[in-house]
């Protein structure tokens, strides 16, 4: 990777210049952080798992006509993606009360919400990604009213699809965070694309029968077996062979699709 120019290093991923204009290479690290990087660890194999899980989900979403930044997976840790200008908002969709919404409104964790809830947070680590409303978004110019509508509609469609996809493998999609970016095509048209990643780092995934957490809360809450849980998700999705004792880096099912 050293021959490629590094453009940005985040907490869990690195972006390199892509082979063609308008493309980037997204590299998945093994680094795990929580509470705005106050808690850190290296979880061996996490990047490989998230690369494959995110690839699987982005391809599935493209099939239902959600436009994404994903072009193709290059290797175990890298994907080729479309270059976008990231909208500085984290879009959160919740189906079941967990995490910050429980603290904010005094809700019991695990209680289904009366309906799916979409939240926007301003993406700014220095401020701890505060929850914002549309008034803030429009007043500060983080996105237009049209973009807010588009992001909300896409988040709800993604939620519907992913709830079904995970339910089919015995997993409850409790909540997730997504990010969007503006891509300028060759003709100068700007399109809003689903960007970043969707993986157990950015979702809450609970086993439907036991409520076992299969996501980054295992790291946040010191529950242990973090990569084992991510491996379980990948295995149920059919990305890994069903052999929990094999290292994820060695047991990935070679796929012909990408
Ligand atoms: P929260 O309950 O902590 O607000 O998290 C809601 C969802 O967003 C949960 O699935 C975890 C995900 N998330 C991220 O992907 N990145 C973050 O920085 C935070 C705080 C949450």
Report on this structure.
The protein has 258 residues and is of the alpha+beta class. The chain folds into two domains: 6-84 and 226-257, 2-Layer Sandwich (Phosphorylase Kinase, domain 1); 85-207, ATP-grasp fold, B domain (D-amino Acid Aminotransferase, Chain A, domain 1, 2-Layer Sandwich). It is 27% helix and 31% strand. The chain contains six helices and 14 strands. The chain has helices spanning 46-63, 100-105, 134-139, 145-167, 217-220, 226-237, and strands spanning 6-9, 13-17, 23-28, 31-34, 39-42, 70-73, 78-82, 85-86, 89-96, 112-122, 131-132, 171-184, 190-195, 203-207. Strands 8, 9, 10, 11, 12, 13 and 14 form a seven-stranded antiparallel β-sheet that branches. A hairpin with a 3-residue loop joins strand 1 and strand 2. Helix 1 (46-63) runs parallel beside helix 6. The longest helix is centred in the middle third of the chain and has 23 residues, at 145-167. It is globular and about 50 Å long. The mean pLDDT is 94. It binds thymidine-5'-phosphate (TMP). Thymidine-5'-phosphate is lined by residues 92, 98-101, 129, 175-177, 202-204.
Write the topology of this structure.
Layout lengths: L5 E4 L3 E5 L5 E6 L2 E4 L4 E4 L3 H18 L6 E4 L4 E5 L2 E2 L2 E8 L3 H6 L6 E11 L8 E2 L1 H6 L5 H23 L3 E14 L5 E6 L7 E5 L9 H4 L5 H12 L21
Antiparallel strand pairs: 1-2, 2-3, 3-7, 4-5, 6-7, 8-12, 9-10, 9-12, 10-11, 12-13, 12-14
Helix pairs in contact: 1-6
This protein binds thymidine-5'-phosphate (TMP).
Thymidine-5'-phosphate binds next to helix 2, strand 12 and strand 14.
